[in-house]
Amino acid sequence: MRTLSLLLVLLAAPLAAQSVVSVEPAAPVRGEPVRVTFSEPVDSVTVTYRPGAISARTETFTPGAASFEFTPQRAGVVSVASGSASKSLSVRFTKAPLPGLVVMILAGLILFGGAAISLRALLADGHRIEIDPTLRPDT
Amino acid sequence: MAPSPRDHEPLADTPTHTPNDDANAVERGVWSSKLGFILAASGSAIGLGNIVFFASNAYQFGGGAFYLPYFIALFVLGIPVMIAEFSMGTMTGRSFPMALSRLVGKKGEFVGWWSLASALFITMYYVAILGWALCMMVGALGGLLEPGATAPFAPFAEPSATPSATAYFFGLLASWWPLLAVLAVWGVTLLALWKGTETIEKTVRIAVPLMWLFMLVLIVRGVTLPGGTDGVMYLFTPDLAGISQPDVWKGAFSQMFFSLSLGLGTMTAYASYLPKDSDQVNNSFMVSLLNCGFEYIAGIAIFAMLFAFSLNPVGGTLSLSFFAIPQGISEFPFFVKTFGFAFFLLVVMAGVTSAISLVEGMASAIIDKTGTSRATALTMVAVPGVIGSIITTLPFIVDPNLGGNGTVGLNFLDILDHWAFSYSLLTVGLIECVLLGWVFGADKLRAFVNQNAKLKLGVWFEVLLKYVIPVILFTVIVWNLYLDLFGGALYGTAFPLGPVDWFPVVIPIVWIGGTLALAAYLTSRPSAEEPTEPAVAAFEN
Q1: C-alpha distance from B188 to closest chain A C-alpha (Å)
Q2: Beta carbons within 10 angstroms of residue A54's beta carbon
Q3: Residue B474's CB: how many other CB atoms inside 10 A?
Q4: Residues with Cβ < 8 Å from B378, sequence gap 6 or more?
Q5: For every one of its 541 residues, what pLDDT tens digit does chain B have, with 9 covering 90 and above?
Q6: Which of A87, B222, B314, B517 is least surrounded, with the fewest CB atoms within 10 Å of its CB?
Q7: Cut 0.80: pTM above it
Q8: d(C-alpha B353, C-alpha B359), whole Å
Q9: A14 touches chain B (CB under 8 A)
C-alpha cells in the first residue's frame, strides 16, 4: 500500500511516454545496442537497471539529440528517462543464465521435494489419513 | 537426530486435560482427515500476499539472491514458530488465547486475545479487499480489460483510450457495488464456517486445489508470452549487490511471518481440531513448504507476465493485484477476459480461505471461553467485522485531492494495515516465543512435540525459540518502530488527507487502545471451563 502512489506513477509513466519515446529493437537483448528516440532533443538521459529495487543502478548519458544509443549491460527491467518522458524496457538474456537456472532448480527442489517427503510421511503406514475418533483433542 | 529418552515420555495426562474436555471435544469438532487439515492450514497461509507480495520482494531485494535470506527465514523462524503454534493447539485442544492460558496462565490469555482483537481489525479490511477483488472478477467479464474505464475524479474523468485497470478500480471504489461484494464475501465465509471443521474442510477441498490449478494455468500463459521465460530467469538470477543490506533481511523475516499467517491465532485454532498424537513437525514442514511453493510458482507467473509487457513488479498487494497484473493481462493476445476472470477468482479463493481461518480463530476462541454456540460466536465476530468492512468500502469521496484519489476507505485501510499488520503479528510472535520458551519451557514443548514426531527436534529448537527468534523479532519491531517514529513523519501524515487529516494519529491510537481494552475485557471475563492451573506447574512435578 505504501507504494500505491509510486506504482501509479510507474504505471502512468510508460503510458505517458509512449507518444514521446520509441525504442529499437522492440525486444532489446543484453549486450546489443538499443536506440531510443525522443520526440525532441534531450540533454540528459538516465538509464536505471532494476528501478525501484534496493540494488537499482543508474547510468547517465548526455546525447544532446533526439536519438541516442546505449548497450544494456544487464538483462531485466530497465527504465529510460529524460525529464518527464520515460519508458520501461524488458532487456532479454542472450542465453539462459546458469546462476538463475541453478537457483530455480535448487529452490524448487527444496520446496517441492520437501513437501513431497512430508506428504509421503503423512500418507505412510502408521500415519493414517482417517483420524480415529477416539483420538480427538484431549480425549 | 537421536531421540532422547524424554522424547518418549508420556505426556498425555498433563493438566491440559480437564473433566469437561471430552464433551467439549465433541462440540468443538475434529478434522475428518489429516489431508483436510493440511489443505485448511495451507489455505489459511496462502492468501493475497502470496500471489504478489513475494514477487515484489524478490524483485526489490535481488531476485534469486533473495532466496538466501528467504530460506534462512523459513527454517530459522517460520517453521519453528509454526511447530510451536500447532503444538499449542494439539497439546491443549483449545484455540489461541485459551491454549496460552492453559500453558502459561492469564498473561498468556491476554496476549492471545490481543492477537485476535488485532486479527478482527485485519479481517475487516481484508474482506473489503476481497470485495473489491470480487468486483474486479465480475468486471473482467465486462469492461475491466477494455478501453473506456472512468472514475468520477481526475485523472480518470475521461474514458481511457486503452484498457486501464487503475481507472476501473477507482471507478469501482466510487460506486456502491463493493458493499454488496463485501456482504457476499462475508456470506460465503460464514457459510464455510457454519458447521465448523465439516464445512471448512468441504470448502478447502475445492478451493485449494483450484488455486494451484489456476496458478499453473497462469504460469503456462506467462511463460508462453514473448519474453516470458526471460522474466522467469530474471526472477531467479541472483543480483548480489543488495544482499548485505539489512533491509533485505528485514524484508525476508517480515515476509515469512506474514506469509505463514503466524501470530494470528489461526494455526493454533486449526491444530486444536487434531488428535494429540499428530506429528506437528511434519505438519509444519508440509504447510510451510506448500505455502512457499505456492509463492515460488506465483513468482514465476507474475514475473513472466509482467516482464513480457515491461511492467515493473514493485508495489504492495493492492497495487500489483488490482493495477499491474490486470494491466498485463489486458495485453494478452487472446482469452483476455477468461484470464482476467481466472486471476481474480484465484485472488478471491486465496483470500476467502484465509478469511475463513481468521474468523475461525476468533469464533473458536469465543466458544472455548464462553461455551456459547457456534452460531452465536460467529455472529459476535461477524457483526463488528461486517461493519468495519462496510466502512472501508463506502464510496465516500471527501475530496478528490485526498490520497487514494479521494476515497476515505482506501486511506483508512492503508493506515490501519500499516499499524495492525506490521506490528501485531510480529509482537504476538515475539511474546509467544518468550512465554513458550521461558515461562512454559522450550524443553517441555520439544518433549511434547517429539512424542509423535518422526523427525525429532533437537536442542536447536529450544535455542531458536528462546534466543534466536525473539532477538530477530525484537530487532525487526524496534527497527520498524524507529523508522515510524524517528525516520520522518508519522505514517500517513504526508498524505493529502484534507478533512480526515486526523486519520494518521487517531487510527493507530484507536487500534492499540481498542485491541488492548478488548483483550483486557475478554481476559477478565469468567471462563466457561473449570479453571486450570498453568500446565507449566505440572510439568515441573
Answers
A1: 26
A2: 18
A3: 15
A4: B190, B193, B194, B359, B363
A5: 333 433 334 343 344 444 445 455 556 788 988 889 999 999 999 998 888 888 888 999 999 999 999 999 999 999 999 999 999 999 999 999 999 999 999 999 999 999 999 999 999 999 999 999 999 999 999 888 888 888 877 777 888 888 988 889 988 888 889 999 999 999 999 999 999 999 999 999 999 999 999 999 999 999 999 999 999 999 999 998 888 888 899 889 988 988 999 999 999 999 999 988 899 999 999 999 999 999 999 999 999 988 998 887 777 778 888 888 998 899 888 889 999 999 999 999 999 999 999 999 999 999 999 999 999 999 999 999 999 999 888 876 655 555 555 577 788 888 888 888 878 889 999 999 999 999 999 999 999 999 999 999 999 999 999 999 999 999 999 998 898 888 778 888 887 777 788 889 999 999 999 999 999 999 999 988 755 554 444 444 3
A6: B517
A7: yes
A8: 10
A9: yes
Residues in chain A: 139
Q: How far is B331 from chain A (nearest CA, A)?
A: 13
Residues of A in contact with B310 (CB under 8 A): 14, 77, 87-90
Contact flag B314-A52 (C-beta cutoff 8 Å) = yes
CA distance B101 to B93: 12
- Residue among B30, B230, B248 whose CB faces A90 most closely: B230
A121 to chain B, any CB pair closer than 8 A? The answer is yes
Q: Dihedrals φ, ψ of B540, to 5°?
A: -80, -15
User: What is residue A92's three-state secondary structure?
Assistant: strand
C-alpha cell of residue B230: 526471460
A95 touches chain B (CB under 8 A): no
Q: Which of A7, A131, A133 sits opposite B314 (nearest CB)?
A: A7
Where do runs of H (alpha helix) occur along B149-227? Answer: 165-173, 177-193, 197-223
Which member of A3, A53, A115 has the closest CB to residue B319? A3
Give the residue from B278, B279, B285, B314 with the most A CB atoms within 10 Å of its CB, the best one to mutate.
B314
Q: How far is CA B115 from the centre of its chain?
A: 13
* Among B116, B99, B93, residue whose Cα is nearest residue B24: B93
